[in-house]
Amino acid sequence: xxxxxxxxxxxxxxxxxxxxxxxxxxxxxxxxxxxxxxxxxxxxxxxxxxxxxxxxxxxxxxxxxxxxxxxxxxxxxxxxxxxxxxxxxxxxxxxxxxxxxxxxxxxxxxxxxxxxxxxxxxxxxxxxxxxxxxxxxxxxxxxxxxxxxxxxxxxxxxxxxxxxxxxxxxxxxxxxxxxxxxxxxxxxxxxxxxxxxxxxxxxxxxxxxxxxxxxxxxxxxxxxxxxxxxxxxxxxxxxxxxxxxxxxxxxxxxxxxxxxxxxxxxxxxxxxxxxxxxxxxxxxxxxxxxxxxxxxxxxxxxxxxxxxxxxxxxxxxxxxxxxxxxxxxxxxxxxxxxxxxxxxxxxxxxxxxxxxxxxxxxxxxxxxxxxxxxxxxxxxxxxxxxxxxxxxxxxxxxxxxxxxxxxxxxxxxxxxxxxxxxxxxxxxxxxxxxxxxxxxxxxxxxxxxxxxxxxxxxxxxxxxxxxxxxxxxxxxxxxxxxxxxxxxxxxxxxxxxxxxxxxxxxxxxxxxxxxxxxxxxxxxxxxxxxxxxxxxxxxxxxxxxxxx
Amino acid sequence: xxxxxxxxxxxxxxxxxxxxxxxxxxxxxxxxxxxxxxxxxxxxxxxxxxxxxxxxxxxxxxxxxxxxxxxxxxxxxxxxxxxxxxxxxxxxxxxxxxxxxxxxxxxxxxxxxxxxxxxxxxxxxxxxxxxxxxxxxxxxxxxxxxxxxxxxxxxxxxxxxxxxxxxx
Lengths: 548, 168
Known about the structure:
The structure holds two protein chains of two kinds.
Chain A: H1 2-6, H2 9-27, E1 33-45, E2 61-73, E3 76-85, E4 98-109, E5 113-120, E6 134-135, E7 140-141, E8 144-151, E9 157-168, E10 171-185, H3 186-189, E11 198-210, E12 223-235, E13 238-247, E14 262-273, E15 276-286, E16 329-341, E17 353-363, E18 367-369, E19 377-379, E20 388-402, E21 405-416, H4 418-422, E22 430-442, E23 447-458, E24 465-474, E25 478-486, E26 498-508, E27 511-520, E28 523-527, E29 530-534, E30 537-547
Antiparallel strand pairs in A: 1-2, 1-30, 2-3, 3-4, 4-5, 5-8, 6-7, 8-9, 9-10, 10-11, 11-12, 12-13, 13-14, 14-15, 15-16, 16-17, 17-20, 18-19, 20-21, 21-22, 22-23, 23-24, 24-25, 25-26, 26-27, 27-30, 28-29
Chain B: H1 2-20, E1 32-35, E2 40-42, E3 53-58, H2 63-83, E4 86-91, H3 95-98, H4 101-108, E5 113-116, H5 121-125, E6 133-137, E7 143-148, H6 154-166
Parallel strand pairs in B: 3-4, 4-5
Antiparallel strand pairs in B: 1-2, 1-5, 3-6, 6-7
Helix pairs in contact in B: 2-6
């Protein structure tokens, strides 16, 4: 009581609200309160296999795992993620070693305001100046730890602002990042625009990072700002979206401490009607590595996301030569066509056929010497250099042959600058032709058998590969598969290895358990143009995922 | 004066409690996604006018996801006619492939409601580990069944669950 007597009016209000809130909590039988979460563990045994350069692992078994636990009560939510890398799987940075609460947040949403404290992921526009995300398979989790506010003053306008430090493994980077973004859907709020066929959206963002100048030999900018503007237009079946980003000078380990500003432009145009879809993309970027710590390397502490523009392939042999974005500079174009041939037509067959075609080319930007050494070089927007980093062309035919037989046939042509993309020096440019036939036969309504035959031919690198896969599934629970990748065309006859995998998985409701034995080749694992080195390995793997 | 204000405040809180009691009891988590036509929508508003609905997480680069949605698409007209079910297909394609989603869906002739979740906000809110992950909700938004991964024939099991819900 003494406290109440002495406290000021505002404190009284706060206490009243809190008391009232507690009563609300207890008395509200219809309030929605729940715990949800998910879980994954990935454990692997390792046996040294010197032929394929699979190293010996002293622990014999390594594992990565996590558990998310989220609580929701009406407009309030909070969550934590416990992560355990005991010890990290081969190919994941040793920085992950250990366990602990790697992510925690609390958030409150009212009709037009969301406030988050703690860890959060965020993306502005296409991500050219800001995207934090998690991609467990790549070991990426660059969440912020700080405060974020999202406000919708009226329909069609969203403003987001945040401040935070960035996560790297279980610790935080040296920099502090601040950002604001505005998104304006004009048709939602301009009088009379609601029914217009032309839909226009505009957006703008600004992100700034602060890091103390701690290098004695140089004068470094402590605050580095980046801004971006974007536009999206939709008219009937056509759409266009474009974004331009500019970053002031940002000397870093990545750009060898040059003082040149960075720029990026990303344009997409699409046409889509029933049975036909077309997309063309253009991207040009220069010196756009943007990290919250100047000395960071690998995939650590990236503030922005620079997507690759080529198609993302997933068949085994089509992942040997993956396209990875070169943040220092690249220029590229790509196009895709998706088309359905009608059922009961001459070409489409009884059930119809779908086709997809794509082509892309990515090369270096054109650089000229700079007037001042500290700027590194000069470049003009949309300029293309002579060095081709990556090119591809692919065609895929997806056909239902009969009620129980489906076929996917794919041809892919790739040109790949192994030196540039994998950071090596003594390789030739690789030209590869890949063919894949993927057949699924339904034996009974719930039992199926699937066959994949793949071939890659190239005169460079490790020469030709062949692969066969067979998979037997019983819906909705069981899958058994076996495959063998054979590098039969390796120029060194001692290295014509087989890389094989035998596995099964059981899936029920929200849980999937997979067990496999594999002799796995090394290489790059890429998602979205961001890659991680995978080491060759030999051993058993168990993977369990679940949600609740 | 202060007392009057406090009483007013209490009354406002009671009003807030009453208002809160109308909160929808749905198992669909809240996140912001974008339709391929560029409209922003909050996922907690997903519904099918009292009929069951499916939320399917997928990506253009995910072969099993495309196989599953193709299998559902082949039967979708019959399913809609018999049970009124609706499919919300949530693409987790990020900026790299997000712009392909519209043309991809058009080229496949899919008739689903397709939304973009480029930074996986909705995927995380639903605690989905990987794609494909399929949820079935009843007309009130209560989660009835879910399935991770895809094997040919899963769609038959899913349809059995939908029929159970609609008493067909």
